[in-house]
């Protein structure tokens, strides 16, 4: 975890350094021009620019308008303390929005903007990448024929210090924003403002979050319900975090093994009898071993006999694609970082953390952790030019603020994270509320088997399982970057929205 935080902090520092090193130009601007430019560098608490467009989705013409702008965050005295940037897509040939679903979209980090799902997944415009999600030039965007805009309006929200969102003053305490529960509190209030401004109180409402955004929307589900009386129809978790559900020790070590197996299968690093099977035939076997044998073995720790320890190590090696001795050297507990470095070490390559299909090259083969995150570097390569081109040129939002792909939100208060339990409580209180979880098999940061485990622990009684569903994809953290998965995952969202929107007059009751 420390290595991950250090990597993110280094990335943010590097981005800040790039901005700081812009070449100097001759100073020919007037005093008035300088004042105007300085104003543009500051966030506007309220602003909006409207554009119109249309797209064909599933053979149907869908006209829409886009609002790019900011709305305030209020303090306890009703004074604005921050401007939140959002991009709102509204289908324009709908006259009655009382039955029109509204999807509220967040990404994670926690210090990253809503850029990823906006121009990578559900929005009507997506970035140009190849069929597996790799960058291509020239950079740009294209229409997304899989967008869910045909069935729902969508608002993409950038929390404070992400995207173009900023506090209005350096004197505003960062504790107002930068923590699990502070984040949930102010964003719930902001959503209330948005719903009121755009007259969406009657609409069926959905939250979708990716990565840390799943922590955010899980907490929001209960905060919106209990503090703002806003009741949801659905929550979608894309590549979910642990949601505050504890899994230290043997559990933490064991639950990542099915992800190891998926990655090793992708890179053809498994034994031939496993490799010749389809991925979905291999994983149930690994999951069963994990639950029935691996967790109990790790729980026994040093009391495990040498013969049993070797037996377990051989199975872990068989399913992970790394050597028996390497497993034994780690006392059966193979760290994820070591796995990313070790799996293809003999080939001089590392595998990506967030998506293990991506390959990296380190300065030296020795070591216990890759030099960099190959997949994140690739994504920043393609997303950063595209979102700046889109917002500034296509949507014509004018500002001299840097668009923070990753912004300064640390120190972040991660204490008292009960978001998984928050979501369970919200579902128990609201019979309308349904849950959909989407995971990529090759995601090593928020792996698919941990997502399954979270669902099991969220619903220990089994009374909510008819409203909870999970699905896996043959890609990583951003499974939608793979062309095939982009189509399938959006279609599942479309089905989920239709299935969880009640028929007229259908009561919310048990």
Mind explaining what this structure looks like?
Residues 1-20 form the signal peptide. Residues 23-43 are annotated as: Disordered. It comes from Hydrobacter penzbergensis. InterPro entries: AB_hydrolase_fold, Peptidase_S10. The chain has 510 residues and is α/β, with parallel strands linked by helices. The protein has two domains: 42-245 and 381-500, 3-Layer(aba) Sandwich (Rossmann fold); 250-373, no CATH class. 40% of the residues lie in helices and 17% in strands. It is built from 16 helices and 14 strands.
Q: Strand portion, in percent?
A: 15-25%
Q: What's the tally of helices?
A: 16
* CATH homology-level superfamily of the largest domain: Alpha/Beta hydrolase fold, catalytic domain
Q: Structural class, from helix and strand content? A: alpha/beta
Q: Provide the succession of SSEs.
A: HHEEEEHEEEEHEHEHHHHHHHEEHHEHEH
Binned, the helix content reads: 25-40%
**What is the mean predicted local confidence, pLDDT?**
92
Round the Cα radius of gyration to an integer and report it: 23 Å
* Residue windows where pLDDT falls under 50 for at least 5 positions: 1-39
**What would you say the CATH architecture of the largest domain is?**
3-Layer(aba) Sandwich
Q: Main β-sheet, in a few words?
A: 10 strands, mixed
CATH level 1 class label of the largest domain: Alpha Beta
Query: In total, how many domains does the architecture comprise?
Result: 2
Give a count of the beta strands, DSSP E runs of length 2 or more.
14
What is the terminal-to-terminal distance?
42 Å
Shape: globular
Fold-level CATH name of the largest domain: Rossmann fold
């Amino acid at each position: 975890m420390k290595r991950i935080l250090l990597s993110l902090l280094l990335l943010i520092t590097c981005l800040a350094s790039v901005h700081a090193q812009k070449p100097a130009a001759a100073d020919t601007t007037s005093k008035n021009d300088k004042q105007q430019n300085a104003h543009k560098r500051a966030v506007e608490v309220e602003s909006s620019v409207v554009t119109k467009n249309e797209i064909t989705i599933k053979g149907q013409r869908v006209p829409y308008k886009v609002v790019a702008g900011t709305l305030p965050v209020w303090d306890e005295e009703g004074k604005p303390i921050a401007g939140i940037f959002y991009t709102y897509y509204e289908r324009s040939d709908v006259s009655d929005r009382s039955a029109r679903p509204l999807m509220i979209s967040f990404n994670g980090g926690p210090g990253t903007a809503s850029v990823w799902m906006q121009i990578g997944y559900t929005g009507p415009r997506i970035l140009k990448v190849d069929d597996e999600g790799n960058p291509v030039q020239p950079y740009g965007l294209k229409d997304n024929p899989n967008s869910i805009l045909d069935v729902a309006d969508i608002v993409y929200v950038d929390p404070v210090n992400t995207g173009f969102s900023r506090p209005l003053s350096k004197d505003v305490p960062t504790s107002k924003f930068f923590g699990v529960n502070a984040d949930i509190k102010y964003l719930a209030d902001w959503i209330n403002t948005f719903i009121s401004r755009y007259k969406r109180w009657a609409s069926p409402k959905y939250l979708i979050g990716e990565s840390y955004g799943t922590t955010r929307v899980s907490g929001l589900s209960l905060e919106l319900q209990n503090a703002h009386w806003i009741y949801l129809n659905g929550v979608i978790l894309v590549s979910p975090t642990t949601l505050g559900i504890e899994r230290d020790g043997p559990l933490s070590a064991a639950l990542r093994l099915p992800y190891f197996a998926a990655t090793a299968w992708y890179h053809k690093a498994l034994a031939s009898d496993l490799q010749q099977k389809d991925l979905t035939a291999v994983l149930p076997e690994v999951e069963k071993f994990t639950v029935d044998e691996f967790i109990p073995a790790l729980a026994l720790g040093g009391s495990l006999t040498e013969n049993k320890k070797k037996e377990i190590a051989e199975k872990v090696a068989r399913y992970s694609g790394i050597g028996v001795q390497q497993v034994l050297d780690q006392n059966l507990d193979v760290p994820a970082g070591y796995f990313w470095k070790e799996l293809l070490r003999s080939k001089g390559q590392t595998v990506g953390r967030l998506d293990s299909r991506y390959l990296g090259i380190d300065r030296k083969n020795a070591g216990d952790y890759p030099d960099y995150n190959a997949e994140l570097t690739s994504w920043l390569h393609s997303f950063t030019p595209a979102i700046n081109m889109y917002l500034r040129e296509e949507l014509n939002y004018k500002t001299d603020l840097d668009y923070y792909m990753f912004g300064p939100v640390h120190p972040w208060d991660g204490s008292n994270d009960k978001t998984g339990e928050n979501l369970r409580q919200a579902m128990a209180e609201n019979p309308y509320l349904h849950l959909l979880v989407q995971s990529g098999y090759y995601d090593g940061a928020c792996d698919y088997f941990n997502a399954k485990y979270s669902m099991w622990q969220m619903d220990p009684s089994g009374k909510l399982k008819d409203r909870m569903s999970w699905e896996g994809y043959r890609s990583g953290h951003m499974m939608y970057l793979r062309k095939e998965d982009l189509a399938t995952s959006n279609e599942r969202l479309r089905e989920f929205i239709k299935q969880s929107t009640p028929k007229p007059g259908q009561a919310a009751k048990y």
